[in-house]
Amino acid sequence: QTVSVSATASHPIPTTLWGQMFEDISVTPNTAASLNAWSAINGGQISVVADSVPVSNSLPNSLRFTIPAGRTGQVGFANSGFFGMKIVASSTYKGSFFVKFPTVSSFTGNLIVGLRTTSGSTVVSQTVPIRGASTSWQQINVSLTPRTTPPSTDNQFFVTIDGAAASGQTINFAMFSLFPPTFKNRANGMRNDIATALAEMKPKFFRFPGGNNLVRSLVVPISCMGQTVPTRWQWNATIGSLLDRPGRAGDWGYINTDGLGLLEYLLFCEDLGMEPIMAVWAGFALGGTSVAQNGLQPYIQQAIDQINFVIGDPATSAPAARRAALGRAQPFKLTYVEIGNEDFFASDTYTYRWPAFVNALRGAFPNLSAPLLPFALPAASLIYKSTEFIATSNINSPVLSPNPAQWDHHVYQTPSWFAQNSFFYDDMPRNGVTFFEGEYAAISTNPNDIFGSPANGRLTFSTMQSASGEAAYMIGMERNSDIVFAASYAPLLGHVAGSQWTPNLIAFDTGNVYRSASYFVQKLFSTNMGNEYIPSTLPSRTGTVFWGITRNTATGEIVIKVSNTVAAQANLTFVLPFANVATSGSLQVLTGAATASNSPTTPSALAPATRTITTGKTFTFAAAGFSVNVITIKAS
Ligand code: AHR
Question: Which one in 103, 126, 185, 385 has a CA-CA gap of 20 to 30 Å to 551?
């Protein structure tokens, strides 16, 4: 196959093209039991009680700890973390909790607070004095720096007290928090190794907070989880002191603490240089409950407040003043707001919810821009590009009024579906309407049971076959990036010991991060974007090998991407029309067997390799079976 390349670009590549979609998903099911992960040490009695004087209105329950009579030695309780705890020598673990005696006591003594192995060997501890005379809540902060690294991640946080000295005492505890060093040392911040993997992708945007976790669920019985209007994600319940975050029964079968809240999302966007694509809840919950048209106003106001928290002027907006009180007077950048998520599940009511929300939000934010503020800001950060709001039902089905200028399209399919649909956007009209591919992934090899079980074709980890199919589709989106302004694989993160959805872009456990084949494809595309698209001979719509070409005018490089979605090698001869073309270029290639994947047992089965290849005005490139390739050539 000969590929003739045009000398001139057809369109700029949107700077937002490749990014990330995040929602609280794929952690652990079965956490409804309030003492999940907690255990007693040496006969300590623990229970969860509705406290008559709780630590805060948002956190009405306490952990009640009673030291039975007759105990000797240290008595207490432990928490085993999130499937264990990685403890590393010389890292400082910051812990805090609240403590009070429910009734006055003459007791004075010490708590021992620390980290230990599950077999009970203390790794590091700190002594904290407490007094029974105090019946009001007192916050305890500890700073734990172990000198050794335990051999396994099977570790615990613990609190103990001398059993004989404290015999018969009852003590209440609340709002435990323990953090290892976080990414960029942010409070309530991200796990360093996971955030580093996300940062290495050089994502251009971050879509949050969902996904189903904003609205509804596919997998959890409606009766048991947070899929009601009152338990929807609410921005104002996710900000400020952890004492003021009640958490919620999330849509994926477990409790969201909301310790990762709106402000943390926004700061993470800035830390990684990503634009937020922020969703607002749009009046639809569960598998079918829509707020009636005449009842929408409070939810619309909540959406306006959410946006004002992000971009408003503290002098005129209470939510923005709240942001300023939390230490962030300057508005964040916000160009994209999505109204709902997958509202094709309630398209009959989206026909009134969409206009109600979009008209009100357009009225409140005519340019969705950061308002001019009285304090000093660099001029460029004052006004952001105006935008339209993003609709989430099926494209033009039903027809919405006002007509959305931006749609969010989602697809979960087989690897071959993605290859066969590399031309999905080519036939869309060029009428000013643009598209966000907010979720996509090849998740099953079984077209008849896409969302089924691994026994029936569902992928647990992405494979070279699924990743090359996704790359074919991404080549199509890059070609159509005059109308596709952003795209994100979904879901982003999944704990290997407890997930509701597979595959995820990145898998992790207590000690490790596993970058998937799809992760490497996303990273290859995002770190080799170019800034303009160069047309070339089109691949066959029904073929199995796909290519696309961009140019980076800053570096004077042509970037050729090739995805081969089958086992047979494909030979492509590129004909470049430029006067000067380097005789060698760089090839980054991800390749492997169709079913190869990175997992805890094969963590490094797949990784891109880089090598130099012969190039020129005309050169032939052999794309290995099941491979994703990025060729970079100096050309002018
Ligand atoms: O990404 C997993 C889920 O798939 C999202 O929460 C939802 O939007 C979609 O159905």
Answer: 385
